Amino acid sequence: MRKVLFVLAVVLLGTTSMTLFIGFTQPEFEEASRTPSQKILGTWLGTFFNKYYYISNHTLFHFKEDGMVDVRAFNGLSMDTTCRWEVKDDKLYIDTIAYDIDLLNVEELGLTNSSVPTDKRKYYYRAAKRPKEVKNLPEIESIETILDGKTWMDREQVKGGFYHLDYWQLEGAQIHLQRYYYRDEKFLFAEKETYCYEIQDHNGYLFFVRTAYQGDSCNIRNMDVRQITNVGRKSFTLYKNDNPFTFFDNTVREKAFTTYQASELPPIDLVPSPDFNLCNQEILSEYYRFDTDYKGGQKGVNRFVLERYKKPANSEDQNGYFQVRFTINCNGETGHFTAKECDLAYQPYTFDSRISEQLLELVRDLPDWIPGVHPHYNSNVDTYRHIAFRIEQGEVVEVVP
Fold it and tell me: What is the domain range of residue 68?
């Protein structure tokens, strides 16, 4: 906050005079003098890191002056609750749990559990940001009417090389996602997914809450939560406090606003890929944390690729690395493919399409993935995986997990 000071000045110009109001701004030091308790008051969107995964916007906290905090767990795993809070000895106490305050200003709050050993705190970190102050949003029923029955385009990646376009078809409580993959604007393949969604009001803030669609019904667990910041007839904008902090130095990353525009599906007759649905679209982690594997191990992957790869003619000038990153869901199915290319010095490079498209197709065809298992819940989970190919003179000489 800054104070505005007005100064009255009268200027004489010959036989006439002119009155001026001149405004100056003065720094407001009130924020710096506020106590930690005063800074924490109000509503926060919480994010959680631990050793296994990261969850964005999974909790809504509303700290009140009477010493109570309302806690809304968006992930569907916990009940809404109200408990006591206080700041004492540079710690934030929520009920009986003590958190060290690692960062606190008007927009950002970072905490670590005091009971976690210092060398492991980077794996158990809670962060929060203020929701956005939004004016003049339509009522929930009006927003649902605007969104329903239309196709909305998510975002368009930079064209050139590999990219994908996402389209949401909203019907009732469901989102039918169509994801189209391209290389140099040539259509390669597509995926289809189904989710459920609803719009929720919490403390006057509106949230677009996406949930899983399993067994022909909506699963309320493990929600993807985004605040609605703008709605029009042809577009709407969602805010996701995505990756607000790094694990190690609490560096604030860029806020994520995504605008979805009313659109039409691409004029492509064939959508060759079957449905690919995540079992838990919000909790994703690297494969090695949950022991995701391939039947036959890395040797099985190598054998499948090397036995099928065909070196294109006249490709002796093709040298570098081709990497494919993808998701393996809890059923062992694969999807969400992205590709990156570089030369042997790790500089940007573009392979002959006969190489890149062939390798991408081979990774998509790998048939025998074993899904990861969460050690605490003994249940299958979705994980990320990547495979890199070292290419020399057009030949695959190494497959790197």
Answer: 37-129
